[in-house]
Amino acid sequence: MSRTVYCEYFKKEAEGLDFQLYPGELGEKIFNNISKEAWAEWQKKQTMLINEKRLNLMDPNARSFLEEQMKAFLFEGKEVDIEGYTPPSK
């Protein structure tokens, strides 16, 4: 049975994540307020950021940078700035 959440990213009711994918309080907030679809969007952006900036996820600075980007993207409606990437026009 899938859960429905009010997705803060898409501003609508949508299918929620099956389980908490991120630790702690932020993970709980994502689980309760972000849809599967929005999380998938973030995962694509995160992969592009990791590749472009050659982030080492063992580095705490890289992880906190990604977390800041994730919060801005999912909850503040900020587009992730990826150099040399032009999003397809809608």
Automatic annotation (TrEMBL):
SUPFAM superfamilies: YggX-like. InterPro entries: Fe_traffick_prot_YggX, Fe_traffick_prot_YggX_sf. One of its GO terms (molecular function) is iron ion binding. GO terms for biological process: cellular response to oxidative stress. Pfam families: Iron_traffic. It comes from the Bacteria. Keywords: Iron. GO terms for cellular component: cytosol. The keyword Iron applies. Belongs to the Fe(2+)-trafficking protein family. Could be a mediator in iron transactions between iron acquisition and iron-requiring processes, such as synthesis and/or repair of Fe-S clusters in biosynthetic enzymes. Necessary to maintain high levels of aconitase under oxidative stress. This is Probable Fe(2+)-trafficking protein. It comes from Pseudidiomarina donghaiensis.
